[in-house]
Amino acid sequence: MNTKVVLYRASILHFPEATDVPSRDYVHFVDGGLVVVNGKILALDEYAVIFPKHPTAEVVDYRGRLIVPGFLDSHLHFPQTEMIAKYGEQLLEWLENYTFPTEDKFKDMNYCRYIAQIFLRQLIDNGTTTALTFASVHSQSVDAMFEAASQLNMAFITGKVCMDRHCPTYLQDTASSAQRQSDDLIQRWHGKGRNLYALTPRFAPTSSPEQLASLGELAQQYPDVFIQTHLSENAHEVAWVKELYPTHTNYLDVYEHFNMVRKRSVFGHCLHLNNDEWAQLSESGAVSAFCPSSNLFLGSGLFDIQSAKEHKVSIALASDVGAGTSFNMLRNYGDAYKISQLQQSPINPYEGLYYMTQGPAIAYDLSDNIGNLNPGSYADFVVLTPLANELSKLRHLGANTTSTATSNNADQTTVENASDMIFALSMIGDDRAVEATYIAGKQQKTPMENLNALA
Ligand code: GUN
Ligand code: ZN
């Protein structure tokens, strides 16, 4: 086993524990050191404190950059990678016109493998080290995704979409085939390496009560698998669910009836919930996945941040690619910020970072492994640079004249104001701001100069 000790020197920011007030409970080492051995974090401290304790460590110098935990994207669709940014529809028409035809391509295993590779490169380029992603209805799309993620030793969560009605027949499974195939995939992948399985009924309209019942049985049989689906995204969808499930008191009650509302249940969107639904989410320990760029793109509505907070429902930020328009979680925070501004309750950068790292890691009972830089966690982390392009340099260092310099980073070797940097990158940054992405201690992002050489 490779027991090389590596000490990363940088400004370092994370949330070591659970908190309702991320802007208070963060830890920021302006000149920090992160020690990594065998793919896991051994220690984190001030560089001046940690260096003498590890005098033989290889030092990797990232001064001037900010290390944060790798990002968790809590809701997205890997089959929709090719159809990101398709013009002009709201949810139900968008599914009919773009999504279903694209997802049909996953009947071909070569296509599954091809897209899985591109998808993972997008995640890594943007600093996402764990994703909770929908696959397609085809079991092999799950195999392709887990195989590719396993190559990177990445903490990865996915599941076969289940849908047996109200979608093209070429994409339909049945109640019993969905149960059998999901069960097979759980046996094959759940808990293997860093992989975890998610039962994945697409949403209530495309599953018959029989199918939800069959998946609910699996949920009871496997209490630690994830459950991912959509909840209350679009007004027409909500009305449709009322018609299809008339005896249920509300949308969430449909999932509740079939044993799908619990810890490790992740509900995408949650835009049009009433107080009973918020209370039920809170009581169950389920998570609401806030998908800001998708909600704006499809014109679905605005996530009610105040209600989520008042009910103490865990919020996880998510890209929802391909309805979401960016794999970049910081950009998705940027959209969340704009939505929160409309609601006079701005989400500050610490909250934004928390909702894509330690917050969901705790809600998923995964914080022993991911979401933070605590000793014992996997060395899944991201190196952010404030100097990725001319505008970002100007924004962070100020103009290069003594009279107008406004830098918070005068010597360019430390990041004094991490919240300002995260905020600026959420508005004007992109994948270039992610200088490196480490997964289990291994740098997985292809450096820019290599990409240039390929061109
Ligand atoms: N609701 C049901 N399926 C989908 C999907 O693929 N994307 C989004 N945004 N909402 C959905
Ligand atoms: Zn979605």
From TrEMBL:
The keyword Metal-binding applies. One of its GO terms (molecular function) is guanine deaminase activity. It catalyses: guanine + H2O + H(+) = xanthine + NH4(+). It is an enzyme of class 3 (hydrolase). Residues 67-441 form the Amidohydrolase-related domain. Gene3D superfamilies: Metal-dependent hydrolases, Urease, subunit C, domain 1. Binds 1 zinc ion per subunit. Belongs to the metallo-dependent hydrolases superfamily. ATZ/TRZ family. Catalyzes the hydrolytic deamination of guanine, producing xanthine and ammonia. This is Guanine deaminase. The lineage of its organism: Bacteria, Pseudomonadati, Pseudomonadota, Gammaproteobacteria, Alteromonadales.
